[in-house]
Write a structure and sequence with these properties.
The protein is of the alpha+beta class. Helices cover 60% and strands 17% of the residues. The strands form two sheets. The chain has a three-stranded antiparallel β-sheet. It is rod-shaped. The model has no long low-confidence stretch (mean pLDDT 88).
């Protein structure tokens, strides 16, 4: 019996020792699982943060580009007024037989700058319907020979820039005479 008792004690000690070994292994497995979850969480947060940063970077670039374009168009619009003054001066001087070659050189240089900046005139508008998006009506004249809202005269040229209206064309628009006036 003493041998049986010793054997039982050995078995019990062995089981206790086995339990002690099992517990640290299970603890380590749980710790690994916890760390893997934390790693995944950090990785997901990093990926979201990186995506947010990239979006912010794109938005910033787009915002700066739009602001630069807006400022450029404002400057070109102011420049356009000076250009139109040169055209009026050139026309006035040439009617009086004054040499306008100097003004012509300046006008051509300005036109070159406009061309390099994709500024194009709004052309061929007389006889077409009035469009408030690209035309500015400065006067309305009664005229039964054309439909209501037809452009009958261009007073000042309009211009496109970067697929936008830089300056609307100033026009005179037709209106049919009312029945009372006929």
């Amino acid at each position: 019996m003493s041998e049986d008792k010793n054997t039982e004690e050995i078995i019990e000690k062995s089981e206790e020792s086995h339990k002690k070994v099992e517990t640290p292994i299970e603890d380590l497995e749980k710790k690994i699982e916890t760390l893997e979850k934390e790693n995944d969480d950090f990785k997901n947060k990093w990926m979201r943060s990186n995506a947010d940063y990239q979006n912010l970077q794109k938005q910033s670039i787009q915002s700066v580009s739009q602001e630069i374009l807006k400022n450029k168009l404002n400057l070109l619009s102011e420049f356009m007024t000076i250009y139109e003054d040169f055209i009026r001066a050139e026309n006035s001087l040439s009617k009086n037989n004054v040499d306008t070659s100097g003004i012509e050189v300046i006008r051509k240089n300005m036109e070159k700058i406009f061309s390099e900046n994709n500024i194009t005139p709004i052309d061929d508008i007389v006889g077409k319907p009035f469009d408030p998006q690209i035309h500015d009506a400065v006067s309305v004249i009664e005229d039964d020979s054309v439909d209501d809202g037809t452009i009958i005269q261009e007073v000042a040229k309009g211009y496109y820039a970067e697929k936008r209206i830089l300056k609307p064309s100033k026009v005179i628009v037709s209106k049919k005479k009312s029945e009372k006036q006929k």
